Amino acid sequence: MTVKSFKFKDPDGHDLELIWFPPDKGKKKWHEQNEQLFLGIDHTAIAVSNTEQSLKFYQELLGLKIKESSLNTGKTQADLDGLPHAVVRITSLSTTEKGMGIELLDYIKPSEGRSRPKNWTSTVLANLQIELVVNNIQDIVKELQNNGVKFISSHLVQLKNTSKQACLIPDPDGHVLLFIEE
């Protein structure tokens, strides 16, 4: 059996995908029996311009681990993306087996992906922000600074009415990451 999926857009045009995993695939939690229609969120997928560049950032700098990798081609991938002759290098990353992951989609064909516009702000409907919960945000910020990562926020920001701190940074392709301390 193969994984079954269906992509569609929400009212604001964001891509969403419903996935069904056969018994021998996917995390154990996706096979639990209950009355709910949706079992949860498995991952967020982002298009990247270069898998190696993204792995240097997500794996080496942030410590995420590769869970699986594949090269998807053919009619199924073309139909799923609505892109004729699509060839996609997919790399799934996560911190734990149970945690939600980030899936890197490196479109080899078609390869005309555009970079995020420089004037893009948090108010743009197409904006995507991935929240990463961390144990020690001070250490993360220091590591990011030592590696020359540009901050969107003014480094650490104290969240209103909490003792939590957070910061926003872009990844190598401009995807926004929100780091928040647990």
TrEMBL record:
Pfam families: Glyoxalase. GO terms for molecular function: dioxygenase activity; lactoylglutathione lyase activity; metal ion binding; methylmalonyl-CoA epimerase activity. PROSITE patterns: GLYOXALASE_I_1, VOC. The keyword Transmembrane helix does not apply. GO terms for biological process: L-methylmalonyl-CoA metabolic process. Residues 40-182 form the VOC domain. The keyword Ion transport does not apply. InterPro entries: Glyas_Bleomycin-R_OHBP_Dase, Glyas_Fos-R_dOase_dom, Glyoxalase_1_CS, MMCE/EMCE_epimerase, VOC_core. Keywords: Dioxygenase, Metal-binding, Oxidoreductase, Plasmid. This is Glyoxalase/bleomycin resistance protein/dioxygenase. It comes from Gloeothece verrucosa (strain PCC 7822) (Cyanothece sp. (strain PCC 7822)).
